[in-house]
C-alpha cells in the first residue's frame, strides 16, 4: 500500500464530502496533556466534571481507541451567509444573541455521517481497517490534534485559527490504525495581538491561551446548571446562548468563508430574534423549535434563566416588564430567582439609577 498516495486520495475525498480541509496528525500530545492537567488542577473547568472523568484518554488517543496510529482531522465552516451582523445584535439589547455555531441544526450528526462516508471510502480502497469517528462526542483534544494536522493554530482565546479561514468552523476526527504520513503542525500567528483578551465581557481569558470556564459566558449560559453568579449577570448583556466576542473581534476572521451547508442556516430567526418573543416560548414550543438543534440540550428552564438575565439588562419598557411578570410565578425556583433579579434591574433602570 502506498500510504502517501492514499493520504492524498483521502484529502480529495474529504473535499468531495464537504470538508473545507483535512489533515493527518500523529498521536503524541504530551505537552498538551500537561496543559490540560494544569488547567484542571486550577479548577478552570468548573462543573464540567467530564473533562477529568476519562483520565488520560483525552490526551492519549491509543487509550481511547486501541491501535490508533494516526488521526485524520477535518474542519467544516459553519457561518451561514446573510445572517444578522453579530455586533449589530449585541448592540440591540432587546434582541437575543445566540452563538453563531448554534443558529441552525446540530452539526454532530451531519459531520459524523460525513466522517463515516469517508471511512467507507477508505475501507473500499484498503479493505477493513480500524477506525472510530468523533465529533465533539468523546474525550478528544480536538484543537491540539487539528493543530498537529496543520489545520490551524490555537489562539490566545483557545479557539483554533486558520490563516485563510479564520475560526468559524467545526472540527471532527477519524482515529485510524493506518500508518499514513503525518502533516506538519501549523505555526502560530497571533503575535502581540490581545484583542480577544481585552474584549471578553467577563475577563474569562485570564492569560494568553488560558480560559477560566467559570467566568466564560458560553459556560455560564450552556454548561452551568444552577444560578448564574450575580457578578457576571450584567456583563452577560443579551447573550442568551454562548458568546462569540473573542471570535468577532479576531482580525483573522476577515478571511472566514460563508458555509454552503443548508443545515447551518438560522432557524426561527435565531440570528437576532426579540428577547420577549423568545421568552414567551412555552416548553412545548421550545422543544419543537429546537428539535435537532444544539440549543435543546440546555432545556427550557435554563433557556428562560438565560433570557431573564438578558431582559434584566435590556431597556426598561412596559413590554419587557410585562414579559418578566408573566414568568414571575414559574414553577422553577431557578427561573423565578433570575426573573426577580431582572425585575429589580428593570425597576432600578426605570428609576434612573446607573
Strand residues, percent: 5-15%
Protein structure class: alpha+beta
Number of helices: 16
What is the mean predicted local confidence, pLDDT? 96
How would you portray this structure in words?
The protein is of the alpha+beta class. The protein has a domain at 3-83 and 103-176: 3-Layer(aba) Sandwich (NADH Oxidase), CATH 3.40.109. The chain contains 16 helices and 10 strands. The strands form 4 sheets. The protein has a 4-stranded antiparallel β-sheet, with helices on both faces. The protein has a two-stranded parallel ribbon with strand order 3-10. A hairpin with a 2-residue loop joins strand 8 (205-207) and strand 9. It is elongated. The N and C termini lie far apart (71 Å). Pfam families: Fer4_16 (PF13484), QueG_DUF1730 (PF08331). [4Fe-4S] cluster 2 binds at residues 200, 216, 243, 246.
Short description:
This protein is α+β, with helices and mostly antiparallel strands. It has 16 helices and 10 strands. Monomer.
Amino acid at each position: 500500500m502506498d500510504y502517501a498516495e492514499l493520504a492524498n486520495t483521502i484529502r480529495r475525498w474529504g473535499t468531495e464530502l464537504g470538508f473545507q480541509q483535512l489533515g493527518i496528525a500523529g498521536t503524541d500530545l504530551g505537552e498538551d496533556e500537561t496543559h490540560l492537567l494544569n488547567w484542571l488542577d486550577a479548577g478552570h473547568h468548573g462543573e464540567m466534571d467530564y473533562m477529568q472523568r476519562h483520565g488520560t484518554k483525552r490526551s492519549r488517543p491509543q487509550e481511547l481507541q486501541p491501535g490508533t496510529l494516526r488521526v485524520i482531522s477535518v474542519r467544516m465552516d459553519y457561518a451561514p451567509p446573510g445572517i444578522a451582523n453579530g455586533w449589530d445584535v449585541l448592540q440591540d439589547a432587546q434582541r437575543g444573541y445566540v452563538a453563531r455555531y448554534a443558529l441552525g441544526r446540530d452539526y454532530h450528526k451531519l459531520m459524523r455521517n460525513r466522517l463515516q462516508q469517508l471511512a467507507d471510502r477508505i475501507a473500499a480502497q484498503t479493505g477493513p481497517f480500524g477506525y472510530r469517528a468523533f465529533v465533539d462526542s468523546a474525550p478528544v483534544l480536538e484543537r491540539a490534534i487539528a493543530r498537529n494536522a496543520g489545520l490551524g493554530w490555537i489562539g490566545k482565546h483557545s479557539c483554533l485559527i486558520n490563516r485563510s479561514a479564520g475560526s468559524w468552523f467545526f472540527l471532527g476526527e477519524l482515529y485510524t490504525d493506518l500508518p499514513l504520513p503525518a502533516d506538519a503542525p501549523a505555526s502560530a500567528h497571533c503575535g502581540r495581538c490581545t484583542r480577544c483578551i481585552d474584549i471578553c465581557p467577563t475577563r474569562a481569558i485570564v492569560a494568553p491561551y488560558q480560559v477560566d470556564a467559570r467566568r466564560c459566558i458560553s459556560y455560564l449560559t450552556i454548561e452551568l446548571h444552577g444560578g448564574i453568579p450575580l457578578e457576571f449577570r450584567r456583563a452577560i448583556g443579551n447573550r442568551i446562548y454562548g458568546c462569540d466576542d473573542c471570535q468577532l473581534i479576531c482580525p483573522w476572521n476577515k478571511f472566514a468563508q460563508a458555509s454552503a451547508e443548508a443545515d447551518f442556516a438560522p432557524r426561527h430567526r435565531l440570528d437576532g430574534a426579540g428577547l420577549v418573543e423568545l421568552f414567551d416560548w412555552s416548553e412545548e414550543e421550545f422543544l419543537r423549535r429546537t428539535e435537532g438543534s444544539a440549543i435543546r440540550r440546555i432545556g427550557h428552564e435554563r433557556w428562560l434563566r438565560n433570557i431573564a438575565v438578558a431582559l434584566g439588562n435590556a431597556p426598561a419598557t412596559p413590554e419587557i416588564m410585562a414579559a418578566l411578570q408573566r414568568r414571575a410565578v414559574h414553577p422553577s425556583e431557578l427561573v423565578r430567582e433570575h426573573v426577580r433579579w431582572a425585575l429589580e434591574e428593570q425597576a432600578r433602570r426605570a428609576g434612573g439609577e446607573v
